[in-house]
Automatic annotation (TrEMBL):
Record keywords, A-Z: Oxidoreductase
A cellular-component GO term for this protein: cytoplasm
Family listed: Belongs to the DadA oxidoreductase family.
Species assigned in the record: Massilia aurea
GO MF term (any one): D-amino-acid dehydrogenase activity
Pfam entry (one): DAO
One Gene Ontology term from the biological process aspect of the record: D-alanine catabolic process
Name of this chain's protein: D-amino-acid dehydrogenase
FAD dependent oxidoreductase domain segment(s): 4-394
InterPro entries tied to this protein: FAD-dep_OxRdtase, FAD/NAD-bd_sf
Group of enzyme by EC: oxidoreductase
SUPFAM superfamilies xrefs: FAD-linked reductases, C-terminal domain, FAD/NAD(P)-binding domain
């Protein structure tokens, strides 16, 4: 049994802490915010896409990205930084924009997704799904252009292929947008839930676990290393120590790793979400919907509609851009005009720590007591339980449930 400090109180850090506790270790959680799940986990889209994953890096994306930059309400914004990490990440991203690389990454993420689905199911025995608004809603990806629809529909195991009429018959919330659609692909078994509520519920169970040593609310400033081992974490409250350490602190992970000479290929992809109350007469989506070309997702979470979208490459800026919020609101009103009370909409922005190839980094470092669970991008909620299970196996010295090529720091 080891005493392990998990750095990060978001969904990935909390899941890591739980699986390590269940593996027999003592765990302390280090979190800089007063409350868990208050960063990228707070207002995310809520989709749990175990069977449908689409890495951002793919053939044709660089040209699409260039066009998006000139669209008023396009899904991408880019602001150059005086930070070499931005350009290093972009160079690696462009190198990943190949169809063969995308296929390999997709296959690996599907393996992680299936493990995550099973891991979440096992966790439901101790964290009741009703605590965090779990719904087996299924997922419908709708396409606005015939070319994109035909490519997606031709992939083996894509899902149920629906015409525009079938899309709106199964999901009436899309009725006003039927004339804009080329078709859709539906996958049953996908889910939606409130990620923040999940974090709160899981944190409560952590607090009840006999091997949980508690939460240290302090900001980590850097790691200390000596003779191939991490010897402690410098925080604003002083030095904290343990036998081993897990870095799961979102985008802060790259700065902390830098303090001991480890480069993590992470960049904060800023995303936005809107939440609006659903009234009795509103036609809100029952199925989780993703608008493929606009890169917007819609999910009913409890009595609210959650809409998430956009990739802004603007550094670690979490401020709300009024123009981006207004543009997203216009698009939502156009696509689902009767889904919620948009006069009561609230907006949120968060930083999704992404790798160039969209695959998380799980496992060992060159320090024998420092472990990683980082880089989940927009799929942190989806992959949190699976990556935590993998991490716990690795810390125990067990073989992972599948080959981790492409999912490790060296991979």
């Amino acid at each position: 049994m080891q005493h392990i400090i998990v750095i990060g109180g978001g969904v990935v850090g909390l899941a890591s802490a739980w699986w390590l506790l269940e593996a027999g270790h003592e765990v302390t959680l280090l979190e800089r915010a007063p409350d868990v799940g208050s960063g990228a986990s707070y207002g995310n889209g809520g989709q749990l896409s175990y069977r449908y994953v689409a890495p951002l890096a793919d053939a044709g994306i660089p040209l699409k990205a260039f066009k998006w930059l000139f669209q008023t309400d396009g899904p991408l914004r880019f602001r150059p930084e005086a930070d070499l990490r931005q350009y290093r990440w972009l160079a690696s991203f462009l190198a990943h924009c190949r169809a063969d690389v995308n296929r390999r990454t997709t296959a690996k993420l599907l393996e992680l997704g299936e493990l995550s689905r099973r891991a979440m199911a096992s966790l439901s025995l101790v964290v009741p799904p009703e605590r965090f608004g779990w719904r087996d809603a299924g997922k419908l990806v709708v396409f606005r252009t015939r070319a994109a629809f035909d490519v997606a529909a031709s992939k083996p195991g894509a899902g149920q292929i629906w015409s525009p009429e079938e899309c709106t018959a199964h999901e009436p919330a899309l009725g006003a947008a039927q004339h804009l659609l080329a078709g859709g692909i539906y996958n049953p078994g996908e889910a939606v839930a409130d990620c923040h509520a999940f974090c709160v519920a899981l944190a409560e169970r952590l607090g009840e676990h006999p091997r949980f040593r508690g939460v240290v609310n302090s900001t980590a400033l850097g790691l200390r290393a000596e003779r191939g081992r991490i010897t402690g974490i410098d925080t604003v409250g002083g030095l904290v120590t343990a036998d081993a350490y897990v870095l799961a602190a979102g985008i802060q992970s790259r700065t902390l790793a830098d303090t001991v000479g480890i480069y993590l290929p992470l960049y904060p992809l800023k995303g936005y979400s809107l939440s609006a109350p659903i009234r009795q007469d509103d036609i809100a989506p029952e199925i989780s919907v993703t608008d493929f070309e606009r890169k917007v997702l819609y999910a009913r979470i409890g009595d609210r509609l959650r809409v998430a979208a956009m990739v802004d490459m603007v550094g670690e800026d979490v401020s709300l851009d009024a123009k981006r919020v207004a543009g997203l609101t216009r698009l939502v009103r156009e696509t689902m005009p009767r889904a919620a009370d948009y006069s009561q909409v609230s907006a949120w922005a968060g930083l999704r720590p992404a790798t160039p190839g969209s695959a998380p980094i799980i496992g060992a470092t060159r320090y024998d007591n420092l472990w990683l669970n980082v880089g989940h991008g927009p799929l942190g909620f989806t992959f949190a339980c699976g990556s935590a299970a993998v991490l716990a196996d690795l810390v125990q010295g067990k073989a992972p449930p599948f080959a981790l090529d492409g999912l490790t720091l060296r991979g």
